[in-house]
Amino acid sequence: MPTTEDLIQLGFSLQKAGKLDDAEHAYLEAMDQDKNNAEIYNLMGVLKLQQNDVISAVHMAEQAVEKKPDAYFYETLFQTYIRAGLYKQIILRENEIMKHFPDNFPLLFNLALAYKKLNRFHDAVKYYDKALKVNPASYDAWFNLSHIYNIEGETANAVSALKICKKIKPHDKDTDYFLSLALMKLKDYNHGLKLFENRLCKETAFALLNKSYPNKARKDNLWNGKNIKNKTLLVYYEAGFGDVIMFSRYLPLVKQKCKKLIFYCQKPLSPLFQINNLGIDEIIDKYIPEENIDFDYHVPLLSLPYVLNLKGEKVFAYSEGYLHADTNMSEEYEKKYFDNNKLKIGIKWQGNTYYDKDRVIPAASFAPLLEVPNTQYYSFQTFEGSDDIKYLDNIIDIGKDLINFSQTAAALNNLDLVVCNDTSLAHLAGAMGIPCWIVLPYEVNWRWHTDLNICDWYDSVKLFRQHKINDWAGVFEEVKQEMINRIETFNNSI
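^ that's the sequence the OP posted. Answer follows.
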């Protein structure tokens, strides 16, 4: 008859070979022989994780720790808690860990991670610091620490942490990318833009273009700022609508460098750029066969400030008013929707949730603003999230009629103010010079920088930021007070 140790070794060998059911059978036999053997329960916890039976994994790992509080068993237990999303359970083990294993890096790291997941950032920093004293070369600890610093607005500390990450992994593109965002958040575009070239959306955009035009869109004719005075340049979109609107400010500067400028943009943006004079000679918004398109060089849109070698304040060129609406279309919207003497305010609460769900504002958060007298609100919410208008009373739904950004611009042109989340509508309003209040989440995107009293990109934009994570009610109290001030000024002017 095989001994308990024989069965454990057999199970372990089978587990390594991927024969999980056979391994489980061997472990269960061993457990029948020795119900107090903590190692068996620990191995079963690992096995259950491999089988994606997380609840059973937690149960087995907890029993292993109860039978023998070994550091390795605690590591398994914490992994089961993490897989189950039971971060509070990790915190409940804090005193045990600090009493028996105060210098165990994996356990300290997971305590920090649990606090981070629970948005208890002060405690998370404390445990990342403890973990780094044990292992100062941990990339993951420094990287996670940089993220917390960024969330908390301690961007200089985030830069320092990411620079250490870069020393640990000198050629890691993710590190370069996130360091670029932190540097640009501090307005250090001289260094940030170069590292920003490591962004994934650039690689994706280039790969798609190269697939469409393999003989013309090559790496050797990717424009790097060289003299192209007598050449044709193709600039193509990347990222979302808001990014394209924001970075389109550089197209007039690019036109000064080349003979012909072709701009490849998303279809909903095409009509907007058709009516705006940004130096564009030709706009395309769909695939054109390679034999029917002719260009000498190409460059993705978000690379323009780097390729143009813009320094300092020049990065913010064309701070407002570089886009405008079609006058006739704007007048049509005025007759249809805006024939009143109230303060006309457009709102939007949600963009593309594929990119960032934290920027989504519950539609009901706007309700207190509707209480301000002599105001008329218009929903510019389109497609995803548009059904949430049901949470707001006495609001005109203009979003249902908006198919492209030319229409949106025409409608915006009739507004006194826009109040919205961090989305493409904010960029369009800013680019048109229309007063816009952007309501930001607690973790602020790099482009809004650290001084939220001003908006460097758009002169007409004012920024509001949450003071606590997910506290939309708190920030909307500020917005409402500002609205009351705005309506008093408006009433005095009519």
